[in-house]
Design a protein that fits this description.
It contains 15 helices and 15 strands. By secondary structure, it is of the alpha/beta class. The two termini are 31 Å apart.
Length: 462
Amino acid sequence: MSEHILFITGSLAEKQVHQVLETMQPEFTYTVHQLGLKVAALMTTDMVIRRLKDTFNADRMILPGRCRGDLHALQQHFELPVARGPEEIKDLPRYFGKAALQTDLSQYSVKIFAEITDAPHLTVAQIIERAHYYHNNGADVIDVGCIPDVDFPHMVEAIRALKQEGFNVSVDSLNDMDLLRGGKAGADYLLSLTSSTLWIADDVESTPILIPEVHGDLSSLTHAVDIMLQKKRAFIVDPILDPIHFGFTESLVRNYQFRQQYPEVEMMLGVGNLTELTHADTVGMNALLMGVCSELNINHILATEVSQHACRAVREADGARRIMHAAKSANALPKHVDDQLMTVHDTRPFPYQTDEIKELARAIKDPSYRIQTSADGIHIFNRDGFHSAQDPFELYPALGVEQDGGHAFYLGVELARAEIAWQLGKRFTQDEALDWGCASAHNETTIDLHTFKPAGTTLNKK
């Protein structure tokens, strides 16, 4: 017996919900019930409890995506499961497809080493502060970076303080004595040892990261690997990832060749040589590099946030490793797993065509402005008219808000957002900030529309 689902909506959206569900040809049966209000986005769970008198023998209930309130109270009242659906009606097919996947992003296989590259110039308190920042953005190991020919007298104190705070710590230096001191201070990892400096690993318990004695020379690296395997010591190998135009492709091949020769050895990829040294958005680079790690079973990366354009690199790598792990576990492409890496574009930026928006506009009977976008541009409409443009300045003369500063400000903000969304290919939803995914430090920030909502404005929703 198939599941029966009750869809709650508003009068403006009722017809479209029916159309989308009929197109889906779902395996479940359904009832679409409009709750007696026009705009579904204004719905609350308390309103559903007051107005809904019949659940139509449903096995579960789906509310509009922006319905506010306590779902648990609603479930207890009607004694059936209740969930919020997608924010746009046209996303219902995708909503049910994703629900079946039940993606778990809590798991990952790649550890992120986040390097504090200027540690010698920071106080211990500042190093601790930076470590908490990296940890909060997904780092598993705090890498204390040393600078050639720069004294670091408080390195031991910093490592011990980090360990006392509960961090896993690595020390990154070209100086043998720095690595030895760091290991004896309690560092968990040492970056980096070669075949000629393996003696350091004999004197400390730290796990060494091995690099080639001569850059690009796999034979010197495999020599060190064989020694560590004979000693039955834990270690990690970094064949070195080079920047673009300075050996990048060859270094990818080198990582692949090493993995073919040693399928079980733990490896590291220094992603900073790409993210820092390429002036392009780092989120896509991190996604691609985490894909390389996923395919080659590389379970450690070294990430940095030195350049201003790479200021979200650790957070991006954290999201990318989780998405790649989920896709690999499902034997699937890394598509439709999670949208946090879609920072500039959206997979479906324009859910409605212009003709469909015009059809909705014909049903509007009040003076409140609605704003929507399509592939053609920006559309603003109310009962008095429908106006379209690709430049918001062209719309101003038709809006009649010259004497209403608050309303003009509100519409200006919303139309500016709509223009940015249309230009970039992002989803625009009136009264909501644009979603920049993991690229924004404030991607969960919302505006309380009850504290500032000029008269004559409304939510733009089904």
